[in-house]
Specification:
Strands 1-4-5-3-2-13-12 form a seven-stranded mixed β-sheet. It has a six-stranded mixed β-sheet with strand order 6-7-8-9-11-10, covered by helices on one side. β2, α2 and β3 form a beta-alpha-beta unit. The chain is of the alpha+beta class and 336 residues long. Helices cover 24% and strands 29% of the residues. The N and C termini lie far apart (87 Å). This is Metal-dependent hydrolase. InterPro entries: Endo/exonu/phosph_ase_sf, Endo/exonuclease/phosphatase, GPI-anchor_lipid_remodeler. GO terms for molecular function: hydrolase activity.
Length: 336
């Protein structure tokens, strides 16, 4: 073997070792710590009482942005004090409303980016919710995002969606929606699952279905597909139960390029559901939910079945301030 051949062989060995190491790291990083059977749970805390029978109910939908405020997805590492301040702000905004049900998106349970705080437990305990349905959508040992510098990587992730309730959550289902087909396998392997979290909640002895969603943010065709699937699911449930469909749909009538299809229009065209805000007002500045410091787009919605639910009132909750990059929504209704 001559010197050049030996050098080439050495480089191949080093390269092969590096690739093998990268493959092992990827396999470890993309693996979750929980089993799939643990991704949908109903947690009951008997320290807090269930609600007494009543004629009126209320619900909040809130993309809480893991309490990172306006730093959400930015290449920064906020101090733990920011999350503590934002948690207190979210509690202060929700407590006076005393909603029967709170549907949360983008909430951390044990993640490095939010200093390992179980935000579902923190909110649930502070607001005294006895029933909590949790649907995990991001369970990874290491997420290398934002990409640079490495010090701001999310790292270990356990995050998802949650429904807090003062009424019995009889059952829930975690439905995984389609991923972005144009993205490479390694992106999808490390990215979150988009979910429809379906909870059946017993109000005054009647089953009401709450469907909590957080749809694709960056790819319009995928978001459109997810929207169609979610609407079909919701309309099917509506043949048997009152249904509330709510969450972050990541689509606004004034956000996409003019003339391009807007996925939220698919739900607005439904003959089964109505938005909590009249259609003519959806584009009003007062209905915008994002970004929370200068709301311009309505990405968050509450839809209901008018055949079985009577809308009484609905509004954007501006008191939440910048605890998240989204503002929450509130709706009050009666059962028909």
């Amino acid at each position: 073997m001559n010197r050049l051949t030996g050098l080439g062989l050495g480089l191949l060995i080093v390269l092969g070792g590096s690739l093998a190491g990268l493959a092992l790291f990827f396999a470890w990083a993309s693996a979750g710590r929980l089993s799939e059977s643990e991704y949908a749970q109903i947690v009951v805390n008997d320290a807090y009482p269930l609600s007494a029978e009543t004629d009126e109910f209320s619900v909040v939908s809130y993309n809480i942005g893991y309490l990172s405020g306006l730093t959400n997805n930015q290449a920064v590492r906020p101090a733990a004090s920011l999350y503590e301040t934002n948690l207190a702000a979210a509690i202060a905004a929700l407590a006076p409303l005393n909603p029967d049900i709170v549907a949360l998106q983008e909430i951390d349970l044990e993640s490095r980016r939010s200093y390992q705080v179980d935000q579902v437990a923190a909110l649930g305990d502070a607001l005294a919710y006895p029933q909590r349905a949790i649907a995990i959508n991001w369970d990874k040992r290491y997420v290398p995002f934002p990409y640079w510098p490495p010090a701001v990587h999310f790292g270990q992730m356990l995050s998802g969606q949650a429904i807090l309730s003062r009424w019995p959550i009889v059952e829930q289902e975690r439905i995984v929606l389609s991923k972005v087909a144009s993205k490479p396998f390694y992106y999808n392997a490390l990215y979150l699952d988009r979910l429809a979290q379906v909870a059946q909640i017993e109000l005054n002895g009647q089953a009401v279905v709450v469907i909590n969603v957080h749809l694709e943010a960056f790819d319009r065709p995928t978001r459109q597909t997810q929207t169609e699937v979610v609407l079909a699911l919701a309309e099917d449930y509506a043949t048997r139960h009152p249904v509330i469909l709510l969450g972050d749909f990541n689509s606004a009538l004034n956000r996409d390029a003019e003339g391009s299809p807007r996925s939220i229009q698919t739900v607005l065209d439904s003959t089964v559901f109505e938005p909590a805000v009249p259609l003519a007002q959806l584009s009003d500045a007062a209905q915008a939910t994002y970004p929370s410091d200068r709301p311009e787009f309505k990405l968050d919605y509450i839809f209901y079945t008018p055949a079985s639910l009577e809308l009484l009132e609905a509004r954007v909750i501006t008191a939440a301030g910048q605890a998240s990059d989204h503002l929450p929504l509130w709706m009050r209704w009666r059962l028909k």
